[in-house]
Amino acid sequence: MYSFYGTWPWYISGLLIGAVMLSLILFGKNFGMSSNLRTMCSAMGAGKTAEFFNFDWKSQRWNLTVVLGAMLGGFIATHYLSDGSGVNLNPQTVVELRQMNIDEPQGKLLPDALTSAEALQSPKILAILLLGGILVGFGTRYAGGCTSGHAISGLSNLQLPSLIAVIGFFIGGLIMSWLLLPLILN
Amino acid sequence: MKFLKYLLVGLVFGIVLTKSEAVSWYRIYEMFHFQSFHMFGIIMTAVVVGVVGIQIIKRNNVKDTTGQPIVIADKERGFTNYMVGGILFGLGWGLIGTCPGPIFILIGAGFYGIGVVLLGALVGTYLYGVLRNKLPH
Fold this sequence. Notes:
Chain A is mainly alpha-helical and 186 residues long. Chain A has helices spanning 10-26, 35-43, 61-80, 91-99, 112-115, 123-143, 147-156, 160-185. Helices cover 62% and strands 0% of the residues of chain A. Chain B has one domain (1-35, 74-134).
């Protein structure tokens, strides 16, 4: 039923993501992707204007290396490990998306409506991408972590603050996905 | 050479998130509408593996690869920053379907439009750094 070149099943994927987190712990580090955004701000000189970025960003080069690997992984997986059969959504989801003028996946990871070269000519789409990025960047630092740092690492270490953050992730996500997204896209 | 292992871990992470489609805007929409178990299954399996692994590490006082005892710091206590920051993050996640890991993975995969999301995420991170002392935590 499952093919290596199609969608990987959730239990294999979850197992491997857990293994990624545990590997970094065994290397004496921790699993957290959003920290890299802070590191990049610091490397670009943000420490001159905000104390928060005054730290030895070079000590985080190992995490930037994880990012580089992840980018390579994304490249390899889409170009060499995919047969175009993926992203089979619930048919109900497809119907809802069509009502918001979002194209069917047909194997694509992202909708053309948001990321095609044509879409990127639209000021509205660019504003959506930029605003979404700002919310993700600001929110993740305010909450002290993202999906990797809180939902995976924090919950695995039975941390109450991480549970609070994850509940926040879902409150925000549900408000956006159910109430705001249809207004924004229509 | 000491960075090779981090490159490999990142490589596995990028491949798994792409092949599981956790980087897909569609999958995040589907998750928030409870129309598929897929994303919930991924997160729950990862957490179960993580809980078991961390318990084994703690109970056996496992040392890391440099020979140091493994200490996993507890998150600072608090509520406002976790809840409000979490909600803001969730609004962004629900809108553009990418958390920080997938932003990088998708750019690597050739979705250059996500570069705009990365730019926004850096701006957002910077804004937090500037406003930090004025925000309730």
